[in-house]
Amino acid sequence: MNQVPRIERRPSVCPHDCPSVCSLDVEVIDGRSIGRVHGAKTNTYTAGVICAKVARYAERIHHPERLLYPLRRTGPKGSGRFERISWDEALDTVARAFLKVEGEFGSEAVWPYYYAGTMGLVMRDGINRLRHVKKYSGQYSTICTPMGWTGYVAGTGKLAGADPREMAVSDCVVIWGTNPVHTQVNVMTHAMRARKERGAKIVAVDIYMNATMKQADMALLVKPGTDGALACAVMHVLFRDGYADWDYLERYTDHPRGLEAHLKTRDPAWASAITGLPVEEIEAFAKLVGETKRTFFRLGYGFGRQRNGAVNMHAAACIPAVTGAWQVEGGGAFHSNSGIFRWNKALIEGHDAIDPSIRQLDQSQIGRVLTGDADALRSGPPVKALLIQNTNPVSVAPEQELVKRGFSREDLFVCVHEQFMTETAMMADIVLPATMFMEHDDLYSGGGHQHFQIGPKLIDPPGECRSNHDVIRALAERLGAEHRAFHMEPREIIDWTLRQSGWGGIEELEAVVHKDVQPPFEEAHYLKGFGYPDGKFRFKPDWTAVPSYNNGPMGPHAHMPAFPDHWAVIEAQTEEHPFRLATSPARSFLNTSFTETPGSVAKEGRPEVMIHPLDAAPQGIANGDWVKLRNHRGEVFLRARLFDGVRRGVLIAEGIWPNKAHPLGRGINTLTGGDQVAPYGGAAFHDNRVALEKVDADLTVEVPSVTIRDRAEPVAG
Per the database record, which ranges form the 4Fe-4S Mo/W bis-MGD-type domain (predicted)? Predict the structure, then answer.
């Protein structure tokens, strides 16, 4: 007789690197597996809506190709030849290698490398505790946030903004530099509600006619890296036509008269020549914003990923300060709420063991670090050992040719703790199987909203998978690293973190499931003053003193414009490289997560590049043809997709497909640069000049195989 499975709905929270950090209701089947994943209706930001890729998470967590056992490499690096070993063998091997490197080259020759494969505070950031106790090289995290955060905070003085749920009560929602239909669907939930209930207008500003642009009432298609020019022209019109709120400007901003004078020459005709937008569209956008006090600027990360990204973000954030939109509900701006949670991560990260003399290596320059660049190494010893969690740099990091060359070094020992055999894991000496978020306890907060929540363990992990915390403390024991958090369980660490951060204990949080800590209206809208000591919004920031996460001034910071402007430091087209390429997010992938799940792969199809038909015509490029993109960093082969929703001279390649999905194993980040961007560094993933060529040959994609032998099997060859 067939037994009916017992299905229980349990609360959880999405761990992926998305500002929505959605609250979830998960179907747990017989306490052993999961079914459908739903958005939690009780969370007023998630509002019952989640993206399709997380809704079908069962195909990822129960994927037949998950890593289940520790592995040791038996063939050349990248050959895919491994053998199964025990956890003790694996951990002992890693510890011996690290201790050997420390003894020969010093502790800084070991580099723990991680990022946002999980956004859980314990599992993501606990690697820093081992780093600090052992005096391993530090990591300055630059892959994602420095340009956007710095540009926003340059104006506000704090990484916080208006309640993002206020989009639903706005009369105009400006979605700038983000494609939330692909990357944070909840933004559209609240914006569409404003349209439906209030007749609000939705404006989208982006570099191609993506899914969000197609849903907008006004879609402003700008050339990459020109957002600052658009923002300046809008403010020019606001001052020119009497839309500037002078009472607000005099009370809350630093140099309004200086800004007005500076913008006299930044009119719509000036901006049109830079952005590609018609003058009429710039004028219409400025008039809409000027006449609509209740305008909400939802500012994303995309337009910050240019070499002038911080300047562009700051310029866009200045507009609601000119109109005084901050004064009303449904008005103002929002980029991230990461500054409101006040997390005390001293226990998670081992702050009591920090040695400020230890070097900080730039995460985005891992290729330069591993190939011995003296500047990237901060004139210190070579990196001889890596411990990698929560990231896949062999696909994700810029300057891929350097990255792969570095990982190919025979004198580099690499341990990767992963869920799948990623391209980084393929280069490892030891591969350790990792849990997924429903298989351990963790604490999460939403940078895109105002909630935090416990993500509890719902099911047991498959095989011998272990959590990040368990791996870190097991290595600590073997390495002689002492810290009290190595002897604590995740729930104990979470409870301590909550209490020390002023949010009560773990049981209190579990009782309410998710906690809303949105600051009061006057604070969120800066009506008591902005985050600087004088309470003024900065139109004229001191770029090397912006109170944002940083490792000191970097890049051409001395040449940054004093007031909002178009700063022409982007990789402009040349005769040799006449196109500009942006590597925009795919809808069904999240960086390289979900590139292994059948549903996501089926929806994305194959690596393609969008080309304007008039740019394709001179070379006779048709839909589906092989094309080559190249610059001084390397070359990549993709299929052509003719698309008139881009400006002439602009190319768009959506998603980070695995390198193995491309001919010759060269993925899109072969073309992206790792140079440090002003003022605090960062990777300009959407700022690349390239050449485009049709390829007449019938190219093939060779997928490397993985061979894992049991210890009882003989070694072939």
Answer: 7-65
pLDDT band at 717 (very low <50, low <70, confident <90, very high): very low
CA 289 to chain centre: 29
Q: Are 617 and 687 spatial neighbours (Cβ–Cβ below 8 Å)?
A: no
**196: burial class by Cβ within 10 Å (0-12, 13-18, 19+)?**
exposed
Architecture of domain 7-62: Single Sheet (2.20)
Residue in the block written with tokens 């209206």: 521
Please give the sequence-ordered ranges of beta strands (E in DSSP) within 331-490, or none if there are none: 332-334, 360-362, 385-389, 413-418, 430-433, 442-445, 451-455
Can you give the residue ranges of every domain in the chain?
7-62, 71-140+343-452+463-516, 147-338+521-559, 579-694
DSSP run (H or E) holding 220: strand 218-221
The answer to whether residue 573 scores a pLDDT higher than 90 is yes
Q: What is the pLDDT of residue 591?
A: 85
DSSP 495-524: HHHHHHTTS--HHHHHHHSEEE-PPPHHHH
Summarised one tens digit per residue, pLDDT across range 297-322 is: 999 999 999 999 999 999 999 999 99
335: which 2 tokens?
Answer: 């980029």
Per-residue pLDDT tens over the stretch 316-371: 999 999 999 999 999 999 999 999 999 999 999 999 999 999 999 999 999 999 99
Residue type, 187: V
- β-pair type (23-29, 33-39): antiparallel
How does DSSP classify residue 668? G
Residues in Cβ contact with 357 at an 8 Å cutoff, skipping those fewer than 6 apart: none
Q: Which fold has domain 147-338+521-559?
A: Dimethylsulfoxide Reductase; domain 2 (3.40.228)
Least confident of 144-153, 228-237, 474-483, 596-605: 596-605
pLDDT of residue 587: 86
Record: fold of 71-140+343-452+463-516: Rossmann fold (3.40.50)
Residue with tokens 């063991």: 353
| pLDDT greater than 90 at residue 697 | no
- In angstroms, the CA 516 to CA 667 distance is 40
Q: How far is CA 599 from CA 58, 63, 351, 371, in A?
A: 11, 11, 42, 37
- What does pTM read for this prediction? 0.96
Percent of the chain with pLDDT over 90: 92
Contact 438, 12 (CB under 8 A): yes
Backbone angles phi, psi at 540, to 5 degrees: -125, 75
Instruction: Kindly list the distances between the CA atom of residue 706 and the CA atoms of 25, 51, 419, 604, 703, in Å, as whole numbers in the listed order.
Output: 35, 31, 15, 24, 10
End-to-end Cα distance, the chain:
51
Largest Cα separation within the chain, whole Å, is 82
Residue type, 89: E
Please name which of 524, 176, 153 lies closest in space to residue 331, comparing C-alpha atoms.
524
Tokens 């229980």 sit at which residue?
8
Query: What residue spans of 184-278 are helical by DSSP H?
Result: 185-198, 211-215, 227-240, 246-252, 256-262, 268-275
What span, in angstroms and rounded, lies between the C-alpha atoms of 638 and 625?
A: 8
Fold of 579-694: Barwin-like endoglucanases (2.40.40)
Q: Are 127 and 444 in contact (CB under 8 A)?
A: no
* Length in residues, the chain: 717
User: Going by C-beta distance under 8 Å and a sequence separation of 6 or more, which residues neighbour residue 693?
Assistant: 619, 627, 628, 630
**pLDDT tens figures, 642-665:** 999 999 999 999 999 999 999 999
* Residue 439, token pair as written in the block: 């298989």
Strand 295-299 vs strand 172-176: parallel, antiparallel, or unpaired? parallel
For residue 394, give the nearest of 426, 349, 358, 352 by alpha carbon: 426
Percent of the chain with pLDDT over 70: 98
Cβ(310)–Cβ(147) under 8 Å? Answer: yes
